[in-house]
Amino acid sequence: MALTGRITDGAEKEGAILVSVRWGETSQQEAEASLNELESLAETAGARVDGTLIQARSRPDPATLLGKGKLAELATVIEEESHDLVIFDQELSPSQQRNLENELNLKVIDRTALILDIFALHAHSKEGKAQVEMAQLRYQLTRLIGRGAELSRLGGGIGTRGPGETKLEVDRRRINNRIKTLDRELKDLSRIRRVKRKRRERQAVPTFALVGYTNAGKSSILNALTGAGVVVEDQLFSTLDPTTRRLVLPGNRHAVLTDTVGFINHLPHQLVEAFKSTLEEVKEADALLHVVDVSQQNTQGKIEAVEEVLHEIDAVEMATVYVLNKADLLNDEERAEVTRKMPFGLFTSTRSGEGLQALRERMSSALENIGLVTLLIPREQGHLLSTIYQKGHVISFQEEDNGYLIVATLPPGLVHSYRDYLQEEVALKGEGTAGRR
After folding, report:
1. Which of 135, 212, 375, 398 is most exposed, with the fewest beta carbons within 10 Å of its own?
2. From the annotation, which residues make up the binding site for Mg(2+)?
């Protein structure tokens, strides 16, 4: 495919060319959709997208990802026109990034570096800034390690320590020291968050966590349900710092709703690791509100991207209400198609107010799932008892020949997690709250 121009206004912005290399089972349509998303990411970061390039290969070039012909074509365009950087949709190895910069004589970054940059722009709280900095440092550390053979000239051992260290070794040591400092800070902040969560648990206040693809409208849902007044921006990753608000549901049920960071395809592992203390809010919730922007393309792929991260933090089996947001942007035919694909979801619109009262009722119904269960925990799984005692209310405990017989009340997330040990099946009454099967 030839280079496609998309020159826009904004002379002060960095001019970027977006590049995607597809291979294997990735279709042209999937590659174009991913590149469109990369364009949104680049614009969110403040870049001006000057053009795009997609190449299909049987396998990526190990040295530059692109083939020699396309690389030469790209170099010619860069030489003839004024551009500031090239952004690859795929993650580049340190050597690939270095080779590309040498060939193109231009700054080259990948999708991971771009997302990290956006997170740095939008981090405001002390915790958010620390999480982003840690993710960036871990990313930089892999780049340093990748250049070790090239940069190190002194070797190791006697005579190379102290003032004799290479710049690479000094940088690596400083980064590792800073990561350790940030890790301590985040653990302290995580402890504070746990104390607040325990206080809510003692007060028996059930918790819902908002999850979803970035820019799906989670903050708008939070505002609509709680009147939180959180600033809503039509930008990717505009919310990094979790916001928690109380709300009253039908039946005078009190609950807590927490907004969380948005997810995205190929979310950098460094970010998932750094944001684990924040993502604990998801894992520790009683149920999830999975917000889906049904006005966009590839909703199924975005749902799967969110569930991939939920699986990574061990929260994929939690009770879930699927919120099909921005329904006011659909026509009747599009609504029918969404209903066919996602009959378990609930249409909502924060603009028109559609579905918000039904959502409150469904959330209230989900809380009815916190009920009485009888569990038989095998002796070899005895470590599970501590979680039951911490998150549930144990009514009776009895040792049996084949394990531990427990009668307890549990939140819906744990009912799903412990369903293999249920002796008396619990009916999940809230329609659509048990997730997709």
Report:
1. 398
2. 219, 239
Burial of residue 173, with CB atoms counted within 10 A of its CB: 0-12 exposed, 13-18 middle, 19 or more buried = exposed
Architecture of domain 205-366: 3-Layer(aba) Sandwich (3.40)
Name the residue among 322, 346, 55 with its Cα closest to residue 208.
Answer: 322
> In the prediction, which pLDDT does 240 show?
57
The reported pLDDT for the residue numbered 436 is 42
- Which two tokens mark 142? 């892999």
Span between the terminal Cα atoms of the chain, in Å: 40
d(CA 265, CA 111): 10
Intrachain domains 205-366 and 371-425 with the same fold = no
User: Binding site for GTP: residue ranges?
Assistant: 212-219, 237-241, 259-262, 325-328, 349-351
CATH architecture of 371-425: 2-Layer Sandwich (3.30)
Tell me the per-residue pLDDT of 360-388, one tens digit each, with 9 for 90 and over: 999 988 776 555 688 999 998 888 888 88
With beta carbons less than 8 A apart as the criterion, state whether 312 and 272 touch.
Answer: yes
Q: Does residue 159 register a pLDDT over 80?
A: no
pLDDT digits (tens, 9 = 90+) for 271-293: 777 777 667 778 878 889 999 99
- Annotated binding site, which residues? 212-219, 237-241, 259-262, 325-328, 349-351
Of 119, 17, 133, the closest CA to residue 70 belongs to 17
Q: 248 near 290, Cβ under 8 Å? A: no
pTM of the model: 0.71
What is the architecture, at CATH level 2, of domain 15-120? 3-Layer(aba) Sandwich (3.40)
Question: Checking phi first, is residue 46 left (phi over 0); if not, alpha (psi -120 to 50) or beta?
Answer: left
Average pLDDT, the chain: 80
User: Which of 123-127, 258-262, 356-360, 409-413 has the weakest average pLDDT?
Assistant: 409-413
Give the pLDDT of residue 203: 53
Q: Where are the domains of the chain?
A: 15-120, 205-366, 371-425
When pLDDT is averaged across residues 105-121 and rounded to a whole number, the result is: 88
What per-residue confidence (pLDDT) applies to 230? 63
Residue 193 has pLDDT above 60, yes or no: yes
Query: Hey, what are 421's tokens?
Result: 């040990």
